[in-house]
Amino acid sequence: MKSQIKGSIKFSLTIAVITFVLAAIFSVVSSSLLNQVMWLIGLFIVLLIVFIGVFFDMLGIAATAADEVPFHAMAAEKVPGAKEAVYIIRNADKFASFCNDVIGDISGIVSGTASAIVVLQIANLMGQGDGSSIHITLSVVLTSLVAALTVGGKAVGKFLAIHSSTTIIFFVAKVIAFIEENLKIKILSFANNGDNKKR
After folding, report:
1. Cβ(83)–Cβ(199) under 8 Å?
2. For residues 111 and 47, is the Cβ–Cβ distance under 8 A?
3. Residue 190 has what pLDDT?
4. Suppose 174 and one of 64, 81, 86, 99 were both cysteines; which one would form an S-S bond, judging by CB atoms 3.0 to 4.6 Å apart?
5. Which ranges of 77-132 would DSSP assign to H, the alpha helix?
6. Could you read off the pLDDT of 111-165 as tens digits, one per residue?
């Protein structure tokens, strides 16, 4: 029990640090990009950030809904991505925490900040400053649009994640396997996963 609590605390602290670093990177990069491009491209960047949040939310749910049984036979036949899929499903709580809480929440926060920058750009283009009626209206409209796309997108993502969890996880696992094999970037660790120690 104590080891589980320690492991949980260690994971929570790790996730907190990762979230801090990624949030800082996302914020700096998005703000830098938005301040250097026209509002239309800025709007596209905002929508892209929203899509990233929706996509990772879907991945997190798919991991908790997927069944590892179909991947055992594939792993035995050394099908690329099969071992990674088993690992993801066996560690669904941590995988979902990273996808939903870290990437998902960061995307939500950054998309709000990015929206504010785009709104100010449009208002300035129309000759209206910060706090004007045009600026307030644009802010309400864009914020509502981002919220609607986020909620609607996550609803669709949840449906796909629940009904196509195996397909989604296998796709992600194959991408991870490709990256680890060809780019030599370690994303998943099999050290504590019994049968999955060997690639």
Report:
1. yes
2. no
3. 43
4. 81
5. 82-90, 92-96, 105-125
6. 988 998 999 888 888 877 677 788 889 999 999 999 999 999 999 999 999 999 9
CA gap 193, 140 in Å, rounded: 49
Q: Where are the domains of the chain?
A: 2-196
Q: Which two tokens stand for residue 89?
A: 């499903």
Tell which phi-psi region holds residue 147, choosing left (phi > 0), alpha (psi between -120 and 50) or beta.
alpha
CB 87 within 8 A of CB 193: yes
Closest CA to 199 of 56, 83, 58, 27: 83
Entry pTM: 0.83
- Distance of alpha carbon 16 from alpha carbon 23, whole angstroms: 10
Positive or negative, the CA dihedral 62, 88, 93, 68 is positive
In degrees rounded to 5, what are phi and psi of residue 9?
Answer: -65, -45
| Cα 116–chain centre separation | 21
Helix axes 82-90, 165-178, angle to 10 degrees: 120
Please determine, for residue 199, whether its predicted confidence score (pLDDT) is greater than 70: no
